[in-house]
Specification:
The protein is of the alpha/beta class. The protein has 15 helices and 19 strands. α2 packs across α5.
Length: 467
């Protein structure tokens, strides 16, 4: 038998049939739905198509759920649009026997946080959702990818999708990361190295010593942002940390089924001689804390550095791109990064809103006070309740941080969670595009620790002890 990669093993075990033109019909294990998926429902109903396997579909309410005040039912949503979409999701899932962690549910939260923490996302499976950051679930060794509503409807009706097999990119981080370097720093550094189109047409397998050292929660951050490098999905091979993370989750296997599942998951790692179409090696020992300075996730700089100078760009096109970004961001060439004053801090999103992220924030701000408005939005009710059981909410509130309920919030500027024009924010989310957090908003992507320290200092900063 030929050597296989992790992706080869997942792909080959899910191919139902292959066509001569290179397309394959792929079995889909799990379909996740959020409120925005409601457009797929009438596509099925108008054609009289039932849901093929309701037990393999899971709904979550996240994009349209306000994070201020406890909303117990969809009727309490203030936005007519939000009520319409959330009601459509409630009605359709109830009628078709689909589990829904909706408004008012104690397990409600961002779909890419809820799936793994409940054990609904599992290694070796295929997962789809109408959201580009579905790649997050790849951190446990699943092939997880975003789809449009037509494909979502196809997946619900047939439990399959037509796909051409993507190419494979091995992104290997050699060596150990330095103290204070997080998964967010690693992935931003890598995107800066290969560019936002560096992985187009590929899935990324993250590997190497620095990746093995990461917790599962940090691996979610990596795979979440694989999309920002242009990849179709991100993967990390399951290991003992993966097994430990999934054990005793609400929907994880039990008993003998668990033993068999764990053994299978551990067998999925890429064979030593598995073939990749492309390999990129990152020296993890050379990666330090970073932030974005521009308007794409590839415009990254060391927090110890300075704003780049367009006059030193290699091409006229690159110079013009840098000049546009600097004008939008209101920055000057060679400006010291730690001199950049900020107006807001947002800690949340499917990238960095898990319990480990919140513990890191608490460790930075305990006993201190925020000097700018800072908001913390947990990734799920499970995360929120865990944080409160540990007393983290008290630390946040004592430091002057707003402690919210779960939802997508300012990551995509929902429910009024917006920056004002030209407000500058350090954000733990995944995108810093023009207008992403509000018209003419200015976003610097960073790790939770940097975001927390910046909220205290009122400018982009490192936590004490790492300066």
């Amino acid at each position: 038998m030929s050597a296989k990669t992790l992706f080869d093993k997942i792909w080959e075990s899910h191919v139902v049939l292959e066509r001569d033109d290179g397309w394959s019909l792929l079995y889909v294990d799990t379909v996740f739905l959020h409120e925005g998926s409601w457009h797929a429902f009438p596509q099925l109903e108008e054609r009289g198509l039932p849901v093929r396997n309701p037990g393999r579909c899971i709904g979550c309410a996240d994009h349209l759920v306000p994070t201020v005040g406890l909303v117990r039912s969809t009727s309490e949503l203030k936005s007519e649009k939000a009520r319409k979409m959330a009601t459509a999701q409630e009605d359709y899932t109830q009628k078709n026997g689909i589990r829904l962690f909706g408004v008012g549910d104690t397990r409600q939260g961002i779909v890419h946080v809820v799936g793994p923490e409940l054990g609904l996302s599992q290694p070796g499976t295929t997962i789809i959702c109408g959201d580009s950051h579905t790649s997050t679930h790849g951190a446990i060794g699943a092939f997880a990818f975003g789809v449009g509503n037509s494909e979502l409807a196809h997946g619900m009706a047939t439990q399959t999708l037509w796909r051409k097999k993507p190419k494979q990119l091995l992104l290997r981080f050699d060596g150990k990361s330095a103290e204070g370097v997080t998964a967010k720093d690693l992935i931003l550094h890598a995107i800066a190295q290969i560019g936002t189109r560096g992985a187009v047409g590929h899935i990324i397998e993250f590997a190497g010593e620095a990746i093995r050292d990461l917790s599962i929660e940090e691996r979610f951050t990596l795979c979440n942002m694989a999309i920002e490098a242009g990849a179709r999905a991100g993967l990390v091979a399951p290991d003992e940390k993966t097994v430990a993370y999934l054990e005793n989750r609400a929907y994880s296997p039990r008993g003998e089924t668990w033993d068999a599942a764990a053994a299978y998951w551990l067998s999925l790692a890429s064979d030593e001689d598995g073939t990749f179409d492309k390999t990129v090696v990152v020296d993890a020992t050379a990666v330090g804390p970073v932030v974005t300075w521009g308007t794409t996730p590839e415009e990254v700089v060391s927090i110890h550095g300075r704003v780049p100078d367009p006059s030193k760009a290699a091409t006229d096109k690159e110079r013009e791109k840098m000049e546009r970004a600097l004008a939008y961001m209101g920055l000057s060439p060679n400006q010291k990064i730690t001199d950049i004053e900020i107006d807001r801090v947002f800690i949340g999103s499917c990238t960095n809103a898990r319990i480990e992220d919140l513990r890191a924030v608490a460790g930075v701000i305990k006993g201190r006070k925020a000097s700018v408005r800072a908001t913390i939005v947990p990734g799920s009710m499970t995360v929120k309740l865990a944080a409160e059981a540990e007393g983290l909410d008290t630390i946040f509130e004592d430091a002057g941080f707003e402690w919210r309920n779960p939802g997508c919030s300012m990551c995509i500027g929902m429910n009024g969670d917006l920056l004002r024009e030209e407000e500058r924010c350090v954000s733990t989310s995944n995108r810093n595009f023009e207008g992403r957090q509000g018209p003419k908003s200015r976003t610097h992507l960073a790790s939770p620790a940097i975001a927390a320290a910046s909220a205290i200092a009122g400018k982009i900063s490192l936590p004490s002890g790492l300066e």
